[in-house]
Structures are given as structure tokens and as C-alpha cells.
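Cross-posted from the bioinformatics board.
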Amino acid sequence: MRHLLAAGDLDADTATRLLDTADRLEQALAGREVHKLPTLRGRTVVTLFYENSTRTRASFEIAGKWMSADVVNVSAAGSSVAKGESLRDTAHTLDAMGTDLVVLRHPASGSAHRMAGWISAHVVNAGDGSHEHPTQALLDAATLRHRLGSLEGRRITIVGDVLHSRVARSGVTLLSTLGAQVQLVAPPTLLPCGVENWGGRNSPVTVSHDLDAALPGSDAVMMLRVQVERMHGGFFPSAREYAIGYGLSEARAALLPAHAPVLHPGPMLRGMEIAHAVADSPRSAITDQVRNGVHVRMAVLYHLLSGQEDRQGSEA
Amino acid sequence: MSQPLLLRGIRPYGEGDPVDLLVRDGVIAELGPRLGAAGAAVREAGGLVALPGFVDLHTHLREPGREDAETIASGSAAAALGGYTAVFAMANTDPVADTAVAVEHVHRRGQQVGLVEVRPVGAVTRGLGGQRLAELGGMAGSAARVSMFSDDGVCVHDPLIMRRALEYSTALDAVVAQHAEEPRLTVDAQAHEGEIAARLGLAGWPAAAEESIVARDCLLARAAGARLHVCHVSTAGTVNVLRWARQWCVPTVTSEVTPHHLLLTDERLATYDPVNKVNPPLRTGADVEALRVALAEGLVDCVATDHAPHAAQDKECEWSAARPGMLGLQTALSVVVQTMVRPGLLDWRGVARVMSERPATVGRAGGQGRPLAVGEPATLVLVDPDARWTVRGAELASLSANTPFEGMTLPGRVVTTLLRGRVTADDGKVCR
């Protein structure tokens, strides 16, 4: 694997190996006062972010630093990008500086694919428009594995703005690859056409508009973020009506089986997408997701930069 | 008076045994077997198919304003090499072709280049703004004799403005060519709204955005008794609307389809290469099939290229930043042969109809699209139906290279183009 551009780049074996590596890295760091492994010493990782981001950027930066890589952060604001430089020229510039890996966040769907065609460095897609966010899918899968054991045959319900969500696109693909049954719950205006086929031929995705009916049979529920700009786009009448139909209230959370965790990629809109008490309940896996994010990103950086899948066990 | 030219062994419309055609003073002077060659330059045509010169109702020549992407000279060269003898130059230049002065400039530059008749299209509204009618009468009455008006690139979406444009144009015997795209339904749209764009996270351009405007415009044209031309029909639903309009007696509605919509589908999007970005977008296989049948039936009148050159930096970027459009002039015939002639949907007389006769009629291009007969203008093209060639954008005459057919091997090749008796392109070379 040269790049990680989409969850579809990962077959079940590769995804499982990445998740296993993430677990081993977590164990290797557990209890240590110094969070530092020497594995990627001398390798240069650039995070190139064209959108504001706190957790994803920090997570990649910490992942790189814990592996001893040199991590350089470049933001669109305050760089040559602000002076009108094209993405292609920026890519070539970073490549010419000897960058080993670029972590790209960009508002245009497909931008990571384009960048991978322009440069010799590895590219990790950290979110391209409404398209994909594969490391988010990996950290969600890692979190679900910790809570549920295997994902095989598990029923995962994803709720909210599927239409604009790169988290949903990557998540449905990866969870299906790992054997889960995915159910999407959203208002019709936020469901793109053809979602039934996102899981591939062997694991069709089911679609519902009735969250109350969907929850009792769910092994986990993943809430999606509703971007503020969507609220003014006529996709639903009001935040209040959205919360009533698709928000995870305390009463709704009680419909879930006892073992089912609640996930949210953040940032959360408490009270609309998810009730305050639910977000902070023992069911909530939200901080686990953030913690696991660092470990799966370490695994991804390691996997791409070491290039030797069979060495990972000994080095990790 | 120039030397007469004898074309020996051509097959008009690809029919019958080869005959000879003598060009004298820009017209077809004689047509028949074994003509005498006294005093004439002789060309052995060896059974090439002869057709009336092609007429493109939809060309973006980019001059004035984007001479880095195309000029009237380079676009004329591409047209001649593609077998075209007339092109309608769209109005979305900078400045916009919305005044008599602007259209006369384009017209004059076309004449100076002299490779193809450049017939300027005038804007319907000032600055393509969709708010106030441009001076249609002034452009129609200018030296450019504008006979087609279009805001192509954007839709005349205000129904009242469209109604007035249609009504007003009836006094000018002009046609209003509509880029049918309801803008409220295509906000931020990047690709055909379907499973592929949904999976790729590209905002959808729904078929209904085209179909609803076409239906509305047919009703407006019927009420006004005006001539409406639907640009680049791209959906099976629009074909159904046109069928309904024809049954409902709107005889004044004509339409065109582009070569790329006859061949390519949205499966092209997976690479995110913006060479496949075009407006209207590449649609589904079912749409392609419906468009081919509609063209064969005559429900869609003609093929028009929507030749849209773009500078490299406007295509070598992320998808959403790229400009929409594709080169088309030099590949149109081959795509029509591939999609229509080879499958048996059109014969060569049908090719003459959709690439020359009908567009000449729609655009009121006098002297174009005429029969291959004695006394008619020697404005024609010789085609090798058996040749195959591989498209290379860098080798095309356009200043830009944004062909979606890069690397494809296509059938049928334009060998020679004549404009009023003068050879404008021959064996892949422009004759200036």
C-alpha cells in the first residue's frame, strides 16, 4: 500500500493488521512516562490542512511525534496557498523538500487522489470534501473492536447527515469490509442515492427513517455531525425537528441493548445530535475514539513509511 | 479565378460507385463518372466518402479574453481539420459578445483567418447576467448577421426574460439556444447526480435541472411561436420531453447532442481527473443509449461539439476547482462514426443530416449544409471511413489539450475539407 486515500483501499486482512498494530502500539506505550518510539526517526511528515481542524490535525501530529518522525504543520491560511498557489504546485514544493508523507485535509472531494498522482511522497487522506476520511473509519473500527470484540455480524447503526459525510462513506465501507451489517438512519434529504450498495455485494446497507425502530437491534450507534451550514440549506425544517427525529436523547439511548456503545466523530452539537447526558454516559465511546485515533494513525504512518508489512510485528 | 480542382473517385454520401467532382469558382461545376481533367488540378480520392462540410452550432473559441486557451485562428484550424466549414462561436467570451461591436470583431477575425465561417452567437442578456436583454436587433443587423442567441454556460433561468427573448427573436428570424440548467437545482453541482457521484462525494447535478427547463422553454416557445434550440441534450428524460413537445406540436423546437454525451458516461469520474468534467455532466449508460436513438430518429436534430478549450492549469487541479468543458472539433466525426455509424444507427446520409444539413438550417447558415450537386457551393469534406487513429491531445490544433478521448483509437478520419472550393485542411495539415 502506497497511499491511504479511501477505506476501499483496505481489504479485511490489511485493515485487521492495521488495527492489530494500533493495539500493539498502544500496549507498547502503556504505562510509559515518555511517549516516544524511535520507529520513524528521520522521516518527515507534513500535515497539509486546507480546512480548520483541531482533533484530526493534532492526532496526526501526536502520532508522528510519538513515532519520532519530524512533523511539519502547514495550513492554507498564512502560507503560499493564501497567495493563490495551486494544490499541484504546493504538492510539488513539499515533494521537492524531501517530504516522506503528506497528510492532506482539503474541502474538495478527490483532492487526495489528485495529490497522489502528482507527488512521490505517500499520501494519507485526512478528509477530502464529502468523500472519505479513512483514518476516522479505522479509529471507529478500533473503538468498536475494543467494545464488542469482533465486528463480524454486528449491526452498526449510523445516524445523521450521510449525504455530506466523509465519515459515513469511509465508515460504511470499512465496517462492511470487516463483516458488520450497517444500517443508515437519516431524513430522506440527507441520504444520497445508491447508499444501499455502499457495503459491497455481500453486505447490503439497510436504510431507515425511524431511529426508534432501529436502535433496539443495534450493537452500536454512530452519530454523525450536522454541519451548521446544512441547517440553512433546507435539508430539514429546524434544529428542533432534527433533534426530535434523529437526535440521540436519553430516552432513545435507553432503547439500545446494554452492550451497545455510542460513537460520535466530533465536534458534537450537544442537545441537537446527542443529549448531554448520553455523551457523558458510560455508553459513550467518544473519548476512546479520540485516544484510538492516535494509535491507528501511528499504525498507518508506520505501515506506509516502513513499507514492510511483515516487519511490523517485531518492530512494533 | 483559381485553378479548377478535380476530385477523382469520391462517393457522395458513401453511396453508389465512385464518381468525379469538378470544382470551379468555388462551386460544384460537374459531378459524374470519368470527368475530363483539362486544366484542373487532380486529386485521387480513391473512394473517400464525400459529405457537405460540417456545421457546429456550439463552439467556444475563447477569443477575446482567454487567448491562452484558444484563439479564433487555432479554433478555426481545429475546425477545418475536423471537417467543419462553419462554426457558431459562443458568446461567453471576455468581454461578452453582447453588442454589435463585439460580434463584428469575432466575425471579422474569422474572415481574416479564413479557414471556416465563424458565425458569432450573440448573448441573450447583457453580460450573460440574465437580467436585461442584450441588443439582439443590433447584433442581428450588424455585419456579423447574428442568427443565434445564447447565454450558453449559464441558463436564461428567469422565465419572464426567456419569454421576452423568444418573443423578440421572432422578428429577427433568430433562434434562442438555451443552456438548460435550473440554477437552484445545481448549486455547487459537480457531476451527474447518481450513484457514482454520491459515492465519490461530488455534489449532484440532477437530470431534472435540465428537463424542467426544457419543458418550460418548450411551452414558452409554443406560446411565442418562436424558435428554440436546446443545447447539449444530456438525459433520457429530456429526450422524452422533446418527444412530448413534438407530439404536442411545438415544431419550432430543435436540439443538439454532443459527441461526448454519445460516448462517455459518469463511470469516468472515479479517477477525479477533471478532463472528464463538463457541463452538463457525463450521464449514465441509459442516457447515452437514449441519446443515440433520439439522434438516429431525428428527435434530436444534430451533433454539436460544445468544443471548450481550457488552459492546463484549469484542468490540472482538484475536481471542484477545474473548469468544465472538453475539446471536440477534431474528434466529433470519429465519435459519431463509433457511436452511430458502426452500430448501424446512421448511414452516411444520416451523418450529413446531423452534422451539416440540420445545423445549417437551425443556424440559418446560408451556403452551408447544401446538397452535393452541380451548382451548389463546393463546401464539403472527404472522409476515410476505414481509417482508425489514436487521439493525442498534444497533437490537436487547439491551444489546449483537454480531450477526454486521449489515447482512444477511433474510426473514421477527415482527409480533406473544402470551403467554397478552397482546400482548408488536407491530410491532417491546415491549408492557410
